[in-house]
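Feature request disguised as a bug report, sorry. It would help if multi-protein outputs had a clear separator. Right now it looks like this:
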Amino acid sequence: MLAKTSSARLSAACYSGEAVAPNLEELLGSPTGSAPLGASPILLGRLLSPAIVCLEGVPGPPQEYPQLFPEELAALAGCAASRAAQYAASRTLAHQAFRELGVPVVPLLNRADRSPVWPSGCTGSVSHTVSLCAVAVARSTSVRSIGIDLELDTPLSEKLLSRVLSPHEFSALRASERQAGIALPEIAKLVFSAKESAYKCQYPVTQTFLGFHDAECDVNWESETFAIRIVAPSAPLGSLAGEPGAPLPADFRLRGRFSRGNGHWATVVLLT
């Protein structure tokens, strides 16, 4: 049930330690139309270049994944069936991604803060819903950090709108409803996903917790891109711009791409 995207067809030679990090545009690639439906979805994979292994698949019961490590199976103890299926599928995808990169296949476990522990020399991100899982992994010589997110494209509930959107975002998204052709609660779910990807991307670099109101998202519907501005007043985030300990430059943005298909929003943010 797990499907490899076209962007995951790589050569191990691409990942020598001498590789020069590509620029952000090369790594993000370009959207190429609607993602196919069915058992072999390709949403995130089409947003990324072949320099990043991106694997996607439909989760099934944990017993369908006998190749899980004992440590990974132990992490399933007490999990609900749906959560266990998502966890098992994402770990199986991660193992496949490690093989694509030519790195040892090791258990993908979580720290106490729930962030994944990637193999030495690698960076990556995981996301899953009840009907779709994805893993993106790259060599650290090519990508500093990556964040991916999948969300069902149902509207964000009214009670969550004010928790996710700032007043500025409310105004901007109200103005873009006509351009996007969808209602604000649906757009808000995209913004929710974009902020999740941004958080996953920044956290390995800064080790800093950010809430939804600590970041603002500007969406470009024509190019299917977005920019995240960090507005947290005192977080030590200069390392995102390559300046550890320094304030984050006012013009700094985390940039990403998005797509919609197969009942999901998909977003990705990279740091090079």
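(second protein starts here, but nothing in the output says so)
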Amino acid sequence: MRRGVRRARPHPRIYRPRPGPDHRAFDLLYIHGVQNPRMVVVATVANLRAAPSHKSELVSQLILGEAAEALEATDGWVRAAGVDGYPGWVSAPALAERADGDVDGPSTSRWGLAWTRRDGTAFDGPGPEAAPLRDLVLGARAQAAEEPDGIAYGRGAGAGTPSDGGRGAATARRPVTLPGGGTAWADGAGWASLPDLPRRFPPDPGAALRTALSLIGVPYLWGGASSKAFDCSGFVQRVFRLHGIELPRDAWQQAEVGDPIDAGPAGAGLAPGDLVFFAEGGTRVTHVGIALGGGRFVHASVRRSGVGVDALDPSDPLHAASLASTLAGGRRVAPAARREFSVGAAGSASG
């Protein structure tokens, strides 16, 4: 369900909304001297909390290079929302002013880059003695600091899935400009140029499932929406976002988009790439996964302590009886083309 966000009193030097129907229209924004509500994430992961306190509930996350819009501010905290419009309180140092042409600008920017591995490291120099500077997570954004020639920054690679690793040999590191400024070096093969991203991660079910299965083992975290840790809807949103399909943040919201699908007995009506939903009490959607076909699905769950594969069919050794009893249906959000995904492959990937 959507997590509540408590409103704090605006600081007297912070902007206040103009009267009118558009709450995102502002007279003035003054956050650390920035007169611009358009922000960019400069931390590896920016935690969105229900209230302006590190002790408050984690409601979601934004990742390095993602755009955010400042909605409100108080001492040391900014209430912000990402492209999905989902608000939360972010520690102010995790955000910086986003200038025109910044890393989360138009997808046609040939200098823009996206990290294509589930993890990685950016260093403070190109040599073997360089120190780690910043962790990288799947989908993190940066800009090429030298001509993106198609080889140095991974454009020569074919369509694939995020892989482990990312430290990269020193000789393979390429300079990037980090969001908010500063240069770092990371394995060039781990990046994809933004114009090349749709080829590397096309918006079709088979490709999205390969990405989802490559994230098996990532831990579960309530509010998690990065490849460091996921909750159920954060996992689904991150996978499909990488493949160019934007979904809302919470499971109940995701259950309202796309075309409804009759899941059928034990999920037999679900095609690979369909979203599969579960509801407590039979009505309120509280959980979501991605169907693999054959009644299996991949999801982030407490049961699996993270991302893993479960099944709806009682005869399947991966049968999750507690979830199967709350099956609430499915939704189709990805194009119908290229739904060739092997159930056997899904089974082997689940280990």
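Even a blank line would do. Unrelated, but nice: The chain has a mean pLDDT of 81.
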